[in-house]
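fyi for ur records
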Amino acid sequence: MVWATYPVLGLFGLFQPLRWLPILFFTLGYKAIWLAFVAVPLWSAGTMEGSSAQPVAESFLALPLLALVIPWGYAWRIYVVGVVRRR
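which gave:
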């Protein structure tokens, strides 16, 4: 059920993309964590080939492309500097 919501959220993101930045951050975060704690140890041990984690790791390798589409300047101003100013 969770995986079915991503295409729907992606469609909503086409209409108001800046309001959906937190979902992009969540996606970026969990994919990076999964790659760091699951894929990298399997790969370094030489057991990634043929494992059930291999297709997931291959699909998550598009992570740099996801990071490229995030407007980092805007995100920094709104989510980091904006939080600091509110305090």
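DSSP finds five helices and no strands in the chain. thats all i got for now
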